[in-house]
Design a protein that fits this description.
The complex is a heterodimer of chains A (421) and B (198).
Chain A lengths: L2 H8 L3 E2 L5 E2 L15 E5 L11 E7 L2 E8 L7 H5 L4 H9 L6 H16 L5 H29 L4 H21 L8 E2 L2 E2 L7 H23 L3 H7 L7 H6 L5 H5 L6 H4 L20 H25 L17 H6 L1 H13 L6 E9 L2 E9 L7 E5 L1 H6 L2 H5 L4 H11 L3 H5 L1
Antiparallel strand pairs in A: 1-2, 3-4, 4-5, 6-7, 8-9, 9-10
Helix pairs in contact in A: 3-4, 4-5, 5-6, 5-12, 5-17, 6-7, 7-12
Chain B lengths: L6 E4 L5 E5 L4 H10 L7 E8 L8 E9 L4 E9 L6 E3 L8 H12 L2 E3 L31 H10 L8 H6 L8 H8 L14
Classes of the chains: A alpha+beta (421), B alpha/beta (198).
């Protein structure tokens, strides 16, 4: 065998000074591609970016060297608009931020406004708001599970998840008349009480929902493709997760047991019996496990809430905050004056500021309201959980394959309405 | 009282607010994060508040949390709107401040000194109308609707890549000189007139 034949077959022209064979490219006609980095643009119109997210990715072969997210395509200026709206008029804006869990956003803003005004809501309203929050958690996680599984090639769980979501949407429609833009809360209470048969239907849901969860668990949790695509992908340590200000399932998957419902309870969450799932490795697989278990826990909370739902009024008894009933406003002079003043002037808040963080499906949703004593806030700030979680994406994607970037991006659970606001 | 603080106050939701002069901000934040017994290791949020009263200073608000102690603290820096709006960036202490500070810069025009990548985030990079969340910014924007439409139609996709991104792709060298200069200055391209059909 001639020397030249060996060179071509093994691509080892010889040995270096330390005796190791050195490799050269097999062909010399093509330029060496090792130093050529490619720039790939993904989005804003791409099904796997979950909305109008645009990622500019620097690739070395198939490996992501750097990922630069561009956001703002859905920016609507809600915070600016809120400065020109009464407190109750802001609630419809909150639907449209995280539109996959509208009821929880309504609750978050109402709690902040009530804290600012020093209003104590009624026991029935508290339990109904817990039901609203946990229903939102289930539908949001179902959308996450469905879209993530479809990103990674599993179509069936997507259909199951959306079927369950549809049942919750029917309940939301029964309650508020709207499936997506619910606007269910008002400052000091709720838009409406739950209708007849709502409790019955919700109970039926909580009894049958765990079956779907266990089916999803059976198809995905030990599925070789799913495990291969998600384990050790996009892992963050607990220290990194804290430093990047992650919250919600992203933080807990990295092993930090912080849940606003447990650590800074609101709406009486301390009286419910539920567990907070915590991951170990902080990778995509752990985020999946955490979210799946959170669905079970949300279902548990729903069952307890339905059982303890007290009778009584849903609104506080304060004519300066709550609109009088239509019949009273039409027949009673005093009620009509209150009605007029509320519609024309809005509910006035005292000077001061309040921040309320609630555990939304995506993470900690904060509502920070600053008032100068008028009926419109000086500043309404949403602490957007998916915006902050997304900011860790470049860190998580570094060094992974381009196809893993899809899995990592899906695991963040973003909703662009909230990222861009 | 936290060393370096000007004064303390209590918000309506019961949280403590600490006012810090901007020259001491970084020292105070480092102390809060690293002193045992304080351990504010988690940055919840960074935002700014401008009051309708023009006399009142603009406030930069930092929400801190100690996950170990389960305690919250709010730190505020007051900036006079008449002087230069700048504070030191806390990016070096908490990476989560990256996008949050960019958003405050984008919406209020506050410069964060020491931030590695202070660009607009929600508005596009060539946005010329100012800072949307300032009280002097009208709700419908500064430009007329016609001007906004004209600018949107004239937007050139090439300007949606930063020069840095184009240089990754080695595309910056391939661009015509005129276009490269334009991109460097942050200007948009001009759509050429359609050829006359004569």
């Amino acid at each position: 065998m001639s020397k030249r034949t060996v060179e071509l077959a093994l691509a080892t022209p010889g040995v270096d000074a330390e005796g190791h064979p050195t490799r050269v490219p097999l062909t010399t006609g093509e330029p060496d591609l090792r130093d050529e980095h490619m720039l790939v643009n993904m989005g804003p119109q791409h099904p796997a970016t979950h909305g109008v997210l645009r990622l500019v990715v620097e690739l070395d072969g198939e490996t992501v060297l750097r990922c630069i997210p561009h956001i703002g395509y859905l920016h609507s200026g809600f915070e600016k608009l809120g400065e020109y709206r009464h407190y109750n008029q802001i609630i419809p804006l909150t639907d449209r931020t995280d539109y996959l869990s509208p009821m929880a956003n309504n609750v978050g803003f109402a709690l902040a406004a009530e804290k600012l005004m020093g209003i104590e809501i009624t026991p029935r309203c508290t339990v109904l708001r817990v039901i609203a929050c946990e229903m939102s958690r289930i539908i949001s996680h179902m959308v996450w599970l469905g879209t993530t599984s479809i990103d990674l090639g599993a179509f069936t769980p997507f259909l199951w998840a959306f079927q369950e979501r549809e049942r919750i949407y029917d309940l939301q429609e029964m309650w508020t008349g709207a499936r997506l833009t619910t606007s269910v809360t008002r400052v000091g209470g709720l838009m409406a009480d739950i209708p007849d048969r709502f409790v019955e239907k919700l109970r039926e849901f909580t009894q049958t929902f765990p079956k779907t969860l266990s089916e999803i668990d059976r198809v995905l949790t030990r599925n070789a493709v799913w495990v291969g695509r998600t384990q050790n992908v996009g892992a963050l340590t607990a220290a990194q997760a804290i430093n990047y200000s992650l919250s919600g399932p992203m933080l807990r998957a990295s092993g930090v047991a912080y849940d606003v419902r447990k650590d800074k309870p609101y709406l009486g969450y301390e009286t419910y019996d539920f567990d907070v799932p915590v991951g170990e490795h902080g990778d995509v697989y752990d985020r999946y496990l955490v979210r799946l278990e959170e669905c079970h826990q949300a279902n548990r909370i729903l069952q307890q809430a339905v059982d303890r739902l007290p009778d009584g009024p849903i609104n506080v008894d304060d004519p300066r905050v709550i609109l009088p009933s239509k019949t009273r406003a039409m027949s009673d002079m005093e009620a009509m004056i209150f009605h007029f003043k509320q519609v024309m002037e809005g509910v006035k808040a005292p000077v001061g500021e309040a921040y309320v963080g609630i555990e939304n499906p995506k993470g900690e949703l904060g509502n920070y309201v600053v008032s100068d004593g008028t009926a419109k806030p000086v500043r309404w700030r949403i602490r957007p959980p998916s915006f902050i979680n997304l900011s860790a994406l470049p860190k998580m994607a570094e060094g992974h394959l381009l196809s893993d970037l899809i899995a990592i991006n899906a695991s963040v659970d973003i909703v662009m309405g909230e990222v861009d606001r | 009282m936290i060393p370096g603080a000007l004064r303390e106050a209590v918000a309506r939701d019961g949280e403590t607010i600490v006012y810090v002069p901007r020259e001491r901000l970084l020292d105070v934040m480092t102390w809060l994060k690293e002193t045992p017994g304080q351990d504010f290791d988690y940055l919840v949020d960074v935002t700014a508040v401008e009051y309708r009263d023009r006399e009142r200073p603009l406030e930069i608000v930092y929400f801190l949390r100690s996950l170990k102690r389960r305690a919250d603290l709010r730190v505020k820096v007051e900036l006079q709107a008449s002087e230069d709006l700048w504070v030191d960036s806390v990016w070096g202490l908490w990476r989560g401040a990256d996008w949050l500070e960019r958003e405050v810069f984008d919406m209020f025009g506050v410069t964060f000194r020491g931030h590695p990548d202070l660009r607009r985030i929600l508005m596009w990079e060539t946005y010329a109308e100012g800072y949307p969340l300032r009280k002097s910014f009208p709700l419908r924007g500064r430009f007329s609707r016609a001007e906004q439409v004209r600018q949107a139609l004239n937007a050139n996709p090439e300007a949606h890549y930063s020069l840095e991104e184009l240089s990754i792709a080695d595309a910056a060298g391939d661009l015509p000189d005129e276009m490269r200069d334009r991109l460097r200055r942050g200007e948009r391209g001009v759509i050429p007139e359609p050829p006359s059909s004569s």
